[in-house]
Amino acid sequence: MPSLIETNRWKWSAVTKRVRARDRYTCQMCGTRTGPMEVDHIVPRIVGGTDDLGNLRLVCRLCHKRRMAGADAVSGVSEVIRSDYSYGGGRKRGIG
Ligand SMILES: [Zn+2]
Hints:
Blueprint: H1 2-22, E1 37-41, E2 56-60, H2 61-69, H3 77-90
Antiparallel strand pairs: 1-2
The structure holds zinc ion.
C-alpha cells in the first residue's frame, strides 16, 4: 500500500514541524539551539510509544544519539548500571 506510506511520511513531517515550533527549536535535553535537531519519542515506539505530540520532543542530534545508545534510559536501567560502575570504581582504594 504505497499510498499509506506516503500519507504517513507526510503526516510525520507535519508533526515534526509542529514539535520544532512548540519546543522553540531548542534541544529539550541539553538546551542547545545549534546543530541539527531531531524529534525524539519520549516513550520509545518499541515499547508502545505513539507519534502523538505529547510523546514527542525536540532534541539535538548529539542527545538523540546518546539516547539511542542507552535506549532504555527511560526506565532508569542505565542509571542502575552507572551506579554499579561507580561502586566498583569507588572500592578501588588502596587499603591493605
Ligand atoms: Zn542536546
